[in-house]
Amino acid sequence: MLTLLGVLVVVIGFALRLNALLVVTVAGIVTGLAGGLSLHAVIAEFGKAFTMNRYVAIVWMVLPVIGLLERSGLKERARDMIARIHVATTGRVLMAYLALRQITAALGLTSLGGHPQMVRPLLAPMAEGAAETRYGELPEKTRHLIRANAAAVDNIGVFFGEDIFIAIGSILLIKGFLAQSGINVAPTTLAKWAVPTALSAFVVHSIRLVLFDRKLKRELGGGAARGATVRLSDSPTGLSGGEAE
Amino acid sequence: MIGLDAVYVLMGLMLAGVAYVNLMDRTDAKRYNKTAFWGLWAVTFLFSSHLPDFVNGCLIIAMVLVSSIGGLGRGGPEAATREERAASARRWGNKLFIPALLIPAVTLLGTTFFKDWRVHGVAVVDPSQVTVISLGLATVVALAVGMALLRAPAMAPVVEARRLMDSVGWAAVLPQMLAALGALFALAGVGNVVSTLVNRWIPLDTAFVVVVTYAVGMALFTIVMGNAFAAFPVMTAGIGLPLIVTRFGGDPAIMASIGMLSGYCGTLMTPMAANFNIVPAALLELPDENAVIKVQIPTGIILLAVNILLMYYLVFRY
Questions:
Q1: Which residues in chain A touch residue B129, judged by CB atoms under 8 angstroms apart?
Q2: What does the alpha-carbon distance between residue B157 and residue B143 come to, in Å, rounded to a whole number?
C-alpha cells in the first residue's frame, strides 16, 4: 500500500496546482523510497530514466524554424488565407483538421501533426482567423478557447486514428502482451476493431465543434445583437444548447 | 551508424543557445535562473550518456529546484511587431508555408527510407529510432531552407527559439520527467497494487459490470499514470483476460483493441499526459494550464461510454 504514496503526492500536488515539475520529482522520490530504495539509488534511477527518455523532448527542435517563420509573419499569413475562404468557420476548420489527422494517423503518418509544428503556427491562427473574419476582433477569452480547441483536435485526431494502423506502437504492445499470455492475434484484427471507436470519435467531436460554432455565433455574432447576448457567454463548456441560429 | 546521440547533440546545442541568449539579456530579471535551467538541460543532452546515473539525477534535481523555487519569470519579448509581421506576411506570401510543411514532409520521407538504408549490410541510421532521427533531420532541413529563403540574421533562429522556449517554460521538461516517474512507478510495482485493490473491492459477477470495470479502469489508471500503455498490461492481466476472456468467453482482440482506446479517453482528461495536454496550453500561451483538458473532458467521457457499449455488444458476439 505504501507504494501508492507517490500517486497520492501526484494527485494532491496537481489538485493544489503546485509546480508540476516539483510534484513529479517528489512523487518519484517518495515512490522509490516507499519501494525500499535508498535515496542515492532513487536519484540514480531518476537520472537513468530521465536520460533514457530524452527522445521525448526532441520535438522542441522545431522551435528555431517555427520561431523564424513566426517572426516573418507565418501566423498572419495562415490567418489571411483562411479569411479568403468564405465558408470557413472555426468549427469547420477544426473539423477538417480532425478528419485529416485521423485519416493520416490511420495510414501510419502520425508525424504529420503535433502542437509545436502544426497547431501553434498553422491550425490555431487559421481557427482564430476564421472567427475574426466573421466577428471582428475577438475577446481574449474567446481567443484562448479557440486555441485550446485547436490543441484538442490534434490530440483526438491522433489518438483515435493511429490504432487503425497495424504497425503503431500500441497495436504492437497489445499483440506482444497477448502473445505472452498465449493468445495470438493478427495486428489487422486489432486494427479492424479500432474502427468503430474512431468513427464514433469523429462524430462525437464534430457535433461538439458544430455546437462550438453556434456558441461563437451566439456570443459574438449579429452586430447590433451583441449587447443583448453577452449574458449567454457565461456557459462553462462549449456544450450548452444550440437554439441560436 | 547514426543514432539518437547525433540528434541529442543538436538539441543540446540549441538549448545552450537558448541559455546564452537569456544570459545576454540584461533586461530580464530572471535571466540567471533561465540560463541555469536551460543550460543544465543542455548538459543532459550533450553529456548525460557519459555521466554516472547519480550525477544525472543531481542535474535534474538542480533543474527542478531552479525552476520551482527560483522561478523562471515570464517569456521573452517579441522580436517583430505585429505590423512588421503583417508586412512580412504580405511580402513572402505562401512561401512562408514551405519550411513549415517541410518538417512533416522530411520526417515522413526519412521514416520511410531510413529504415532500410544499408551500406555493406550495415544500417546507416539506427532502425529502432528512425522517427526521432528523421524529425531531428527535418528541423535542420527546414531551418536551412527557411534561412536561405528569408535571409534572416544568423542569430534569429536562436533568439526566436529562446522566445518560444521561455514562453513554454518548465512545462517543456515535464513529459520527459513524467516518463522517468513512470519508470519509478514500474520499479516500485504500483500497477500490481492497483489491480489487487480493484479485484478486492468490486463485485465482478456479471459480464456488463466486468466490461465497465475494465474500460473505466483503463481510463482511470491512465489518468493516474498519464499513459494508456502503462495501464494496459495491468488492467488486462488483472481483469481483462481472467474475467472477460476466460470466465465470460469474450474475444481477446476486440477487448484489447477497445480497451486500449478506453485508456486514450483517460489520456484526454489528465494533466499527467503533459505532452498532449499541459505543454500545448503553455505553447499556445493560455493562462489556464488545464484549458486543453477542459475542452477534451466532454469528448473523453462520451467516448468512454461509447467504448463501453461497443465492447459489451461486440466482445461476446464474435
A1: 55
A2: 8
Of the candidates B293, B304, B226, the one whose C-alpha atom is nearest the C-alpha of residue B265 is B304
Sign of the CA dihedral running A231, A236, A237, A241 = negative
Q: Say how many CA atoms lie within 13 Å of B180 toward its Cβ.
A: 34
Q: Which grid coordinates are listed for B77?
A: 519579448
Q: How far apart are CA A27 and CA B174, in angstroms?
A: 13
The C-alpha cell at B284 is: 499556445
Show residues of chain B in contact with A172, CB under 8 Å: none
Please, what is the average pLDDT of chain B? Answer: 89
Residue A68 is nearest to which of B146, B171, B241, comparing CB atoms? B146
B183-197 tens-digit pLDDT? 888 788 777 777 777
Task: Write out the E strands in B133-198.
Answer: none
List of residues 6+ apart from B190 with CB closer than 8 A:
A3, A4, A6, A7, A31, B225
Q: How far apart are the first and last CA of chain A?
A: 55
Q: How far apart are CA A11 and CA A33, in angstroms?
A: 18
Q: Which 72-101 residues of chain A touch chain B by CB within 8 A?
A: 72-78, 80-81
pTM (2 d.p.): 0.83
Residue A35 to residue B276, Cβ atoms within 8 A:
no
Q: Poorest-confidence range of A132-141, B258-267, B303-312?
A: A132-141
Give the one of A21, A40, A76 whose C-beta lies nearest to B170's C-beta. Answer: A21
The ipTM assigned to this model is 0.86
CB contact under 8 Å between B172 and A46, yes or no, is: no
Which residues in chain A are closer than 8 Å to B234, comparing Cβ atoms? Answer: none
Select from A67, A173, A208 the Cβ nearest to the Cβ of B157. Answer: A67
Longest dimension (CA), chain B: 69
